[in-house]
Design goal:
- By secondary structure, this protein is mainly alpha-helical.
- It has a domain at 16-54 and 88-142.
- The chain contains 7 helices and 2 strands.
- It has helices spanning 4-12, 25-37, 42-51, 86-104, 108-114, 120-132, 135-142; strands spanning 58-65, 71-78.
- The protein has a two-stranded antiparallel ribbon with strand order 1-2.
- Strand 1 and strand 2 (71-78) form a beta hairpin.
- Helix 2 (25-37) packs across helix 3.
- The longest helix is centred in the middle third of the chain and has 19 residues, at 86-104.
- It is elongated.
- It comes from Tanacetum coccineum.
Length: 143
């Protein structure tokens, strides 16, 4: 028989964001990833964390056609949100969700150290570096 605490925790597991415990980064990292997967566009959220934000790129507007049936293109310009297709808009929107999820999962002291970052990947990488160190410092500790 489960306790009320277990029932409450199970009921809130979908809505309660995992908060980072400084002593257990690996567990938090895994729980945040599971939390992201359960969100709408979760795979895009994880892509934003792992690979960085969606790049809008550039486009060229169609100005008309040539008498031979060719297409006349305008100058290259940066793409805007309105230029994106539905799938690309989901990827773009997932960047904001990813940043919010990662930032909200941090305790205040760590948040204050990295709140100048606006991309989920940069935040994620800085938190990882802060709590686990670089490969070089890991090797130093082991030796």
């Amino acid at each position: 028989m489960s306790s009320n605490y277990d029932d409450i925790q199970a009921a809130g597991s979908d809505t309660r964001l995992p908060i980072l415990d400084r002593t257990d980064y690996d567990s938090w990292s895994q729980r945040i990833r599971l939390y992201c997967r359960g969100k709408e566009n979760g795979l895009y959220i994880l892509q934003s964390i792992d690979q960085g934000p969606f790049q809008l790129g550039t486009t060229r507007d169609i100005l008309g056609t040539t008498p031979e049936g060719g297409v006349l293109l305008g100058p290259e310009r940066p793409r805007t949100y309105d230029d994106l297709n539905d799938n690309e808009k989901k990827q773009f929107d997932a960047d904001v969700s990813a940043t919010n999820i990662v930032l909200q999962g941090l305790p205040k002291d760590i948040y204050k150290l990295i709140n100048h970052n606006i991309e989920a990947k940069a935040i994620w990488d800085n938190v990882k570096m802060l709590l686990t160190g670089s490969e070089l410092t890991k090797e130093d500790r082991e030796s």
